[in-house]
Every structure is written in structure tokens, then in C-alpha cells.
Amino acid sequence: xxxxxxxxxxVDLTYRNSFTSAQKVEWMDFTQxxxxxxxxxxxxxxSFSTVDGTALYPLPADCDRFGIKEVTIETGxxxxxxETLPFLSTESNIPVxxxxxxxxxxxxxxxxxxxxxxxxxGRRVFILYNGRPTALTGASPGAVPELEEDFHELLVLGCLxxxxxxxxxxxxxxxxxxxxxxxxxxxxxxxxxxxxxYYSPKDVMPQNxxxxxxxxxxxxxxGSSGSRVSDLIPKNL
Length: 237
What we know:
By secondary structure, the protein is an alpha+beta fold. Helices cover 30% and strands 19% of the residues. The chain folds into 2 domains: 4-41 and 134-194, no CATH class; 51-122 and 227-232, no CATH class. A hairpin with a 2-residue loop joins β9 and β10 (220-221). α2 packs across α3.
């Protein structure tokens, strides 16, 4: 499989330039991250167990916090049955309380409510998420990019486009961009359409449920005491 160094060699053979290897690898890294945003990569579900008195838990290092698909928690200790927690932003105005069941995000942490207690600690939590690619750096020229091998040319073309742009070579820049966009479209067709769809069962009975699903009625969440999400997050962080 092509390494970072081999991709750099392809760049230099295609387009003579005086940019440092570190700069070119950084451009390839930008390109790969943008591709992962275009076609998200689902990771193996991350799991942990709740701890008594702990509401905040670190997200996995490669987690795209904007790509969290689902957070589920055991309904009881070792029950092996799970319920999906709804997401609420820390800036949400939906009334909540200490007994409300939801999760929120605070930088690289996930906040679980209600806060686990002695009786509820030890429950398994699973986070289904899209991951960020491992960063490409000039310090690891032998590393292999996470992007599928058949489309490593995208990293080369993305780097070439940036080189031409930085040099003010508009015609070359446009040519590299055109080749990149055509190959990217092929990549999207090849991989994005293969990803599984996640369907949630819909309750068609005439009940007063909001889009948040179970646990909500109208514009309030069950267990609400009129507080905001931000009121429940520990202030000593």
C-alpha cells in the first residue's frame, strides 16, 4: 500500500516544486480530512461503563463530535437491554430536570443525565460515531493514509491543486481541481452509497410525541423540573 513518502514522490514527479515535504503532507492531510467529511467513516462502537457520581466521560480520540449517530445505555445493570438517549444541546431551552434522560456534548466529553448513582452505576454505554482519520505528518513518511488505497490519487491531486494555487498558476490549479473533483465524485458513488442506512421505528399511533422520540411530550422532556441543560452540567470543570 502506498506510503506518505510514495505519495510525496508522485507529487514531485508530476509537478516540480520547492515546497517542503512537511507542507505537502499537511496539504494531503487537509484533503483526507475533507474527504472524510464528505464520506463519513463509521468506527467500531465505543463503549464504557458508568461510574457512581460521574456525569462526564471522554469521547474516543478519533471521534468526530458532529458525527455521533447514537448513544445508548443499558436499562439496568447487566440487563443487556438498551435504550437510546436523545441528544440535547447545552444551549437548549427545552426544560429538563435531574431525572431527565438525555445526553449532551461539552467539547470532547459526553454528558449523561441523570448522573449515575450507586444503584445505577456500572451500566454499559455505547456510542455509535463517525471517526476522523489519523493525521498525516511528515514525521511518519512510512505511514499509510486511511483513505482507501484505490483512491490515494485524491491526496496527490489535492496537494497538487494547493501547490498550483500557492504559486498563482491558475490554469494548472483549475486542471488539478477538475481531475480531483471527477475522481471525488467517483469515490462518493463507490463508497457513500454502500454505507448502511439506520432506520428508527416510527410510532404511528396518535400520541403527543415530539421529534425527540421517547421521553418527550410536547416541548418538555420527562422528569423536567424547568431547568436548562447548562444548569445540570458541573460548574467545577
